[in-house]
Design brief:
There is one protein chain. By secondary structure, this protein is α/β, with parallel strands linked by helices. 41% of the residues lie in helices and 18% in strands.
C-alpha cells in the first residue's frame, strides 16, 4: 500500500486540465468507483464568504444531534486530512492511502484525466460512503454550477451564503454572473437557504433560479438575531425562541453565519431530521473553524486571519475595532502576487504600528522583500523576513509585552505560522 507521503504526492501532482466547464470528469470517475455519492444525503453550501464557518457550525450541531456527519471543506490549513472529516475526526492517513490507491487506476484510465480537486472529491465521497454517514455538509470548492461537488443529487438543502466578486476570471465579471453560477447547486424541488445579500440584484438571481426549479426559498432573517455579549472568548446571542446561544467564533459576520446555520437547521427539521435544541446549543458552543480571527496565543496576544478578499477584510477591520481598540498592532503579512494587495492594505493601514512581511509557500506568492518595499514606499514601517518562522519571531519581538500580532493576508501561510508559534512557545 502507498505511504501517506506517496498518496499526497500523487494527489498534489495531478495537473489541472484547464478551465473547460463541465462535470464530465467527476461523473466518469465516480461512476467508475460505484457512485458513492448516490448513497449519501447532503447539505450543499456555496457563496463567497462564510461557507466554511457555516458548514462547520452545521456539522457540529448535526453530530451532537446523533447523526454520523461528514464535513468536506477547502482549503486545508495544516494537513490535507482536515478537508475530510466525520463527526469532527479527520480522515486517517491509512484511509487516504487506501482510497488514493483504489482511485488511481481509474483516474489514469480516463482519456480526460481528472484534476486534483476532482480526485479529492472522489476520495471524500467514497470515504463518507464507507463510514455510513447519515448526512454530509459539503462545501463548494469554487463557484457552484461547474464545481466537482455539484455531481450530488440527494440535496436536503442548498445554502447560499454571502456572495461577492471572486474568481472573476472563471466565474464571471459581474455579481449577476457569479450569483447565477453559484446558484447552480440548487436542485429541483429541494429547499434553498439564502443569506441576506448586500445587493438586491443577487437575491433576484437566486429567486429566479428557485422559480425555474420549483425550489422552496427560505431567507435568513437577521432581524431575529439579538446579540447579548461579545469578547475574545466568544459571543452570546438570542435567535428567535432560542435563548443565550454561544459561539466561540469572533466577529459580527460570524453571528450572521450562525443565523444562516440556524435557518438551515430549521429547514432540515421541516424535512424530518430530529435536531433537539440542546444539540443546537452544544454544537454551536463547541464549533471550531481555524484561521478566521483566531486567537492562537495570549502572551503575547497573537491573532491569525486568512481573509483575502474585500468582504473578508471588512470583517477583519470590524473585528480589530471591536476587540482591539487602541492596541498596538504588528501585522505579519504574506500575500499572492496576483491579488490586489494594495486594496488589502488600505483596510489595515489605519490600525498598523509596523509590518513584518513573509513569503507564503505558494508558487503565486509575492516575495516578502517586494511587499516590504511597497509598504515602505507608502510611508509605512516594514521589515522582510526570509521565512515564516523568522517572521513570527520578529513580529513577537516588535509587539513587545503590550502589543498584538495579527497575521493575515493568506490562508496558505497559516499552517507554517501555527508550527512556528508552537516552536517558539516550546523554547520559552
Amino acid at each position: 500500500m502507498m505511504t501517506i507521503e506517496e498518496a499526497l504526492q500523487y494527489i498534489h501532482n495531478v495537473s489541472w486540465v484547464g478551465t473547460i466547464p463541465g462535470l464530465e470528469r467527476e461523473i466518469e470517475l465516480l461512476d467508475r468507483i460505484g457512485n458513492p455519492q448516490d448513497h449519501l444525503k447532503f447539505v450543499h453550501i456555496a457563496g463567497t464568504n462564510g461557507k466554511g464557518s457555516t458548514a462547520a457550525m452545521l456539522a457540529s450541531v448535526l453530530a451532537k444531534a446523533g447523526y454520523r456527519t461528514g464535513l468536506y471543506t477547502s482549503p486545508y490549513i495544516i494537513r490535507f486530512n482536515e478537508r475530510i472529516q466525520v463527526n469532527g475526526e479527520q480522515i486517517p492517513d491509512e484511509a487516504v492511502c487506501a482510497l488514493t490507491e483504489m482511485i488511481r487506476p481509474h483516474a489514469e484510465a480516463m482519456a480526460d484525466h481528472p484534476s486534483e480537486f476532482e480526485i479529492d472529491t472522489a476520495i471524500a465521497m467514497e470515504y463518507y460512503r464507507r463510514e455510513k454517514c447519515d448526512i454530509v455538509v459539503l462545501e463548494v470548492g469554487m463557484g457552484g454550477e461547474w464545481d466537482a461537488t455539484n455531481v450530488v443529487r440527494n440535496t436536503e438543502a442548498a445554502v447560499l451564503v454571502n456572495i461577492g466578486l471572486d474568481h472573476t476570471q472563471v466565474l464571471g465579471a459581474t455579481l449577476w454572473e457569479i450569483a447565477r453560477t453559484k446558484s447552480g447547486i440548487v436542485k429541483p424541488g429541494r429547499p434553498v437557504v439564502l443569506y441576506q445579500q448586500a445587493q438586491r440584484s443577487v437575491e433576484m438571481v437566486v429567486e429566479e433560479v428557485c422559480r425555474e426549479l420549483c425550489a422552496p426559498l427560505c431567507r435568513v432573517d437577521f432581524s431575529a438575531l439579538k446579540p447579548l455579549s461579545d469578547g475574545l472568548d466568544g459571543q452570546r446571542f438570542d435567535w428567535k425562541d432560542l435563548k443565550d446561544l454561544r459561539i466561540p467564533l469572533l466577529g459580527a459576520h460570524q453571528l450572521r453565519n450562525a443565523c444562516t446555520a440556524l435557518t438551515t437547521l430549521a429547514v432540515l427539521r421541516g424535512r424530518g431530521w430530529n435536531i433537539p435544541d440542546e444539540a443546537i446549543r452544544e454544537g454551536l458552543a463547541t464549533v471550531t473553524w481555524p484561521g478566521r480571527f483566531q486567537r492562537l496565543c495570549d502572551d503575547p496576544l497573537f491573532i491569525v486571519d486568512g481573509g483575502h478578499n474585500p468582504q473578508c477584510l471588512e470583517a477583519l477591520q470590524d473585528a480589530l475595532r471591536r476587540y482591539l481598540p487602541g492596541r498596538r498592532i504588528v501585522f505579519l503579512n504574506g500575500c499572492m502576487a496576483d491579488k490586489d494587495y494594495g486594496d488589502m492594505f488600505n483596510y489595515l493601514l489605519p490600525f498598523s504600528d509596523e509590518f513584518v512581511t513573509v513569503t507564503p509557500r505558494n508558487p503565486r506568492a509575492l516575495p516578502a522583500a517586494d511587499l516590504a518595499a511597497w509598504l515602505t514606499g507608502r510611508g509605512e514601517r516594514a521589515v522582510a523576513c526570509d521565512t515564516v518562522a523568522a517572521g513570527v519571531r520578529k513580529a513577537i519581538e516588535l509587539a513587545g509585552d503590550d502589543g498584538v500580532v495579527c497575521a493575515c493576508g493568506s490562508l496558505y501561510m497559516i499552517g507554517d505560522i501555527v508550527a512556528a508559534l508552537d516552536e517558539w512557545k516550546a523554547e520559552r
